[in-house]
Amino acid sequence: MPKLRSTAAVATTMSALAATSILTGPSVAEPFSPAACALHRTEAHHSEGLDTWNDGYPRPAGALDAVMIFLSFPDSRPDTTPAELAADHFPATSRFYQQASYGRFTLRAHPLKHWLRMPRPSTAYAIRRDWSAADRTAYLHDAIAAADGEVDFSRYDVVYLVADPDAPGVDSDATKVVNLQTPLRADGTDIRRVVTVFEKHPPDRLVLAHETGHVFDLPDLYHRPADGKGDWDTYVGDWDLMGSQFGLAPDLFAWHKWKLGWLDPRQVACVRGTGPTRLTLEPLTAGSGTAGSAAGVPGAAGAPAFGLGHGTKLAVVRTGPDSVLAFEARGPAGNDRAACRQGVLVYRVRSGEASGGGPIEVVDAHPGTAACWENSVYPPLADAPVALGESFTVPGDGVKVEVEERTASGAWTVKITPGLVG
């Protein structure tokens, strides 16, 4: 997870997919089939393939329960309380996923109310971003052992281990998800991954939502410079939480929502052939509720009213055996309420690229300009969407997209011409 900021899976039965769109010309948004637009899941870590679900990860559908365990150390007396640290992350994390999933997924947090003491000083674990396997394993074993007497791990789908942020050996840059080849065992349950939280108080914005995305098999979308210096956000800029938790438009890509099972197959248009296809893209955030809910739980007082809607949210053009171009409408609403620009966002998806290797890259429709220098994580991509009245041909792929109009409901009418691709 980068700290620098200055500069339900796809349906098990592949049912027919039809775009709710007006079609013209010889090309059509054809019925869905795995060979058409759904990339196959590969052995790459957090592969962007979505034809099958990796059963090693919990599906974010319905409700999942997460336990927050607060760890103190013999060499430090905490300056914060567990309640204060829990409030750093919830309900904000639950609210993000409620909005992103159109109310289809609820993350229920169960924070302990007191500190649990680790057996060794914080400095003994050599906590840092690139943690040695031995030190990390010692920390995890001690933490699970310290909690096992009070926590029934069989009740929880997600485990957050929250360290005293003021302990001398704690490094906030080490917050991450740890995937265990050999799972830990407690209460008759295999613990295959945990989120180790070392954030300062208050923490980075949406940091826990980012890490929780890994628990659901989503990859890192940022670029990590070889020397740790330079821009981290050159792949996707502000446009997905898995790129940067600081992003102005951090809602998950429609591709990720399809992968997680939050979009119905009928909401994805597979554009094939060589002629133009005209279709209507509903904004990605339409149906995500309002941003003002205090609870973020459907049915709670003041909670947003979520509705998935029935329009097309994602258009896809196949460009290779393990690659596609994706098109979706983004604008300032819901999780994207601070978005710098609005329009049709174009990005490449590669199922063979591993987490951190650029499995998704936003295509900049305005490569000669930048925007929102004061608060964008990567201004050159802040104005990446194709705006109303513009046309753009994707370099190297020859796919042309034209944004023709907005409907009365705010949807975007676009024309996509694959050319010789697909």
Please characterize this protein's 3D structure:
By secondary structure, this protein is α/β, with parallel strands linked by helices. It has 6 helices and 15 strands. A 6-stranded mixed beta sheet has the order 1-7-9-10-11-12. A hairpin with a 2-residue loop joins β9 and β10. The two termini are 35 Å apart.
The total of helices stands at: 6
Strand order of the largest sheet: 1-7-9-10-11-12
Sheet/helix structural class = alpha/beta
Report the average pLDDT across residues: 88
The total beta strand count reads: 15
User: Helix-strand pattern, N to C?
Assistant: EEHHEHEEEHHEEEEEEHEEE
- Poorly predicted runs: 4-35, 290-303
Largest sheet: 6 strands, mixed
- How far apart the termini lie comes to 35 Å
Inertia-based shape: elongated
Q: Tell me the Rg in angstroms.
A: 22 Å
